[in-house]
């Protein structure tokens, strides 16, 4: 029984498509929605959506800090 569960979790179709990766990166809320809607059936897809959403949030923070430093120095 546990072998059957392991093969379901290692399914090669459990990958997030490139378009959804870009969407999750650019709009982190969409990544969170993808995560919560697919965490039961596709845990790898959900994890990737969560990771790309977090990368998007981090990138946005870095861009805001750089923007603040540049405009603050003028």
What key attributes describe this structure?
74 residues, mainly alpha, 4 helices, elongated
Instruction: Label the structural class.
Output: mainly alpha
The overall average pLDDT, rounded, is: 88
The largest pleated sheet is described as:
none
Uncertain spans: none
Helix content range = over 70%
Structure description:
It is a single chain. The protein is mainly α and 74 residues long. It has one domain (2-72). The chain is 78% helix and 0% strand. The protein is built from 4 helices and no strands. α2 packs across α3, α2 packs across α4 (43-72) and α3 (28-38) runs antiparallel to α4. The chain is elongated.
Short description:
With 74 residues, the chain is mainly alpha-helical. It has helices at 2-9, 18-26, 28-38, 43-72.
Helices and strands, with pairings:
Layout: H1 2-9, H2 18-26, H3 28-38, H4 43-72
Helix pairs in contact: 2-3, 2-4, 3-4
């Amino acid at each position: 029984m546990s072998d059957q569960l392991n093969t379901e979790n290692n399914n090669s179709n459990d990958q997030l498509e490139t378009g959804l990766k870009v969407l999750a990166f650019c709009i982190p809320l969409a990544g969170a929605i993808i995560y919560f809607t697919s965490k039961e059936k596709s845990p790898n897809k959900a994890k990737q959506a969560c990771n790309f959403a977090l990368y998007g949030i981090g990138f946005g923070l870095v861009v805001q800090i750089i923007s603040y430093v540049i405009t603050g120095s003028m």
